[in-house]
Amino acid sequence: MASQCGRSHPLALLLSPPVLLFLLLCLVGDASAVKRDANGTCKSSANTKCQPGVMLPVWQPSLNLSFGDKLARAVVYFSCLIYCFLGVSIIADRFMAAIEVITSKEKDVVVKMKDGTKQVVSVRIWNETVSNLTLMALGSSAPEILLSIIEICGKKFEAGDLGPGTIVGSAAFNLFIIIGLCVYVIPNGEIRRIKHLLVFFVTASFSVFAYLWMYMIIDIFSPGRVQVWEAVLTFAFFPLTVLLAYVADTKIFFKSFLKKHYTARSAKAYQDGELEMQNPETAVVDPSAVDTDLSDFEKTRHDYIEILREIRKKHPNADPKMLEEMAQMEVLNRGPKSRAFYRMQATRQLTGSGNVIKKSKVERRLSVAVEEQEEDPNLQKIFFDPGHYTVMENVGTFSLTVSRSGGDLNAVVRLDYHTVDGTATAGDDYVAAQGTLVFHSGEKHCQFSLTIIDDDVFEEDEHFYVELSNIRVEGGDPETRVELADPIRATIMVLDDDHAGIFHFEVTEATVHEAIGEAEFKVQRSSGARGIVRLPFKTVDGTAKGDGNDFDSVKDYLEFHNDETEKTIKIRIIDDEEYEKNEFFFIELGDPILMKRVGHHLEEDRECSQIDEGGRPKLGEFVKIKVTIIESTEFKVMMKMAEPTKMERRSCPLVWTTGWLCFTVSISGIGLLTALIGDLASSFGCTVGLTDAVTAITFVALGTSLPDTFASKVAAIGDSNADSSVGNVTGSNAVNVFLGIGVAWSIAAIYHWSNGSEFLVESGSLGFSVTVFCVEALVAIMIMMLRRLKPVGGELGGPFVPKVITTTVFLGLWVTYIILSALENYCYIDGF
């Protein structure tokens, strides 16, 4: 990138905030500070003349424009830039969705347990670190990478300023602004630490080395030109980075290779140093190698049970099926998420297109049919279907289902089952059971029953397990192998029904018309209906007045008898036959009172009798309802408006096979828009007097990095660690150089070599900008590592004062980088 030094137009200084500081330095500086040669001319040319782009011609006339014309053109170019940046973000959303589909593929692995039984475990094919540094990094950095490649091709394989400048400027924005923001947005007192520290060390080292390598190419090895070996080696550093990060993640050199083992991340089995893969879908492996996957499965099971308890407390009126659906969604929300998830979430928040969780679930369900892995025809899997049951304590006896799939179904299969205590204990909460299930020839499903013991004592919701074991096969195809597949353990959640009840309205607002006469409002009793409970209630005036004006004031109580779950409050609404605006009042519930029968009378049960303190009646979430009274004529209009219309919004989701077609189409669309962005940015810069170098490190870098900013912010707040928000920044910065510069310069260097010429790249502003960034990047990484020590304790968050100091320092590093780069580019300070 040649250093294009010269005076910028005043309009550029008004439109570029970083250059405002540059203007201040110009006002107090001296004209002699400009670098000039012996003839008094700026060494690096002050040319900001508009040139034809790859897609856009020069807007004619281009010379002798008035200030008003330049302002109008700048507004048009800038508006088009913003529109194209938004378009790239939207296409990148589809791009990242395709990457998520590709990298989330799983395969089945048969694990031999210590007791000799075998279990099928589903593991991801893609290693998380590898996917983050390859497809994920390509997805988040595609505009910068493609801009560099397109610029080289569009300039007939000559070096340009916009592509390399955008890559360096984007790296500075990512490292200083994004991480600084992530440090600040963590709630006070909370911290986020990098979990995979070795991976971070690798990516952070390469993120600095990548830019040092650029400097060495253009200023040390072959100043002013790029040779083929330098460009190709730049690209070769990309797979090397991925390999070293993978080694750091899996700690592969710390493991023994003397015994056969399998890791879900490496997808390799070794035996005495030799690769052994009988069937990649059904490799029999040592369970020690998949301890991580099994422990994660048990942790997810435990989290699911805890979440189910929490949700039941918040939504006591939900039935077991609804509770399970809500718990599954909450587990999905709390689980670890990929970089693609956060990038898509940020884009959809910016464009107002909804929540990525719901869409990704639908997309995944739609793509199941096209993503099914080839099953081993000789493998038969046996598993619980489903693996989780939620039942009420008074359910009595219920059935569990065990299913089998694949292989020869004509074989007769026997296996044992037995119950295992959790928080629920056999004899007190359920009847212990064990026995043998028999799949007869042709049967796919087999059921057995369990019995829950119902008592009259309040208890917390409890759970226990049922496990499968000891498979025996009789007859059938001798080549068929029968294995237990996940889930081999079913969890039974028992919801207690001995609570005296949680009392609440169905809704928080209700509308009645004035002529209704007597309005009814339901009060529900959920999470138990044990005993007799009196529930006080009263009306409260709002704009509608009681005492016979708009409604009859009421202060009374409802009496719920044993096992009674619903009562109705009746309020008389008065129609005064006069037009009034809509008015409202409230009905409030008071604290419920547990009663007991003494003789023929009821009195408050202060000793709790058979119900302990935890089971006493309580108020739920909706304890106050707002009642709006509307005119009868308005009620008719409202009913008319509520009728369904003939117009229906329809959506036609398109599922592309395995994500690769969507991947290809999306990256092509991003490439076209990126070419247009390059032309618009260059035209905008020359119109306002900015060089391509300054335009690249400010406007273009900011525009391409904005979705990543929001994605990292959401990841910082939502994740329990800093890997998605911080670790991926350094990885992306390294990949930008190795792909964006490596591919572009390799194409140009090979082209010139084949034609007997040289690919010239002047150091100038690029060398200076890279040097400033590398020095500041080392400072930033040192600060991040120091924050891991006490009293902060983590890269992100911490006490308020350290947060503010860190964010301020990082912001200062970015501003310093912009100012120094701009000053050098306009020849106010000496570069290289």
TrEMBL record:
Keywords: Antiport, Calcium, Calcium transport, Calmodulin-binding, Cell membrane, Glycoprotein, Ion transport, Membrane, Metal-binding, Repeat, Signal, Sodium, Sodium transport, Transmembrane, Transmembrane helix, Transport
Any one GO cellular component localisation term in the record: sarcolemma
Membrane topology: Multi-pass membrane protein
Source domain of life: Eukaryota
Places the protein is found: Cell membrane
Annotated NCBIfam families: caca
Name under which the protein is recorded: Sodium/calcium exchanger 3
Naturally occurring in which organism (per UniProt): Macrostomum lignano
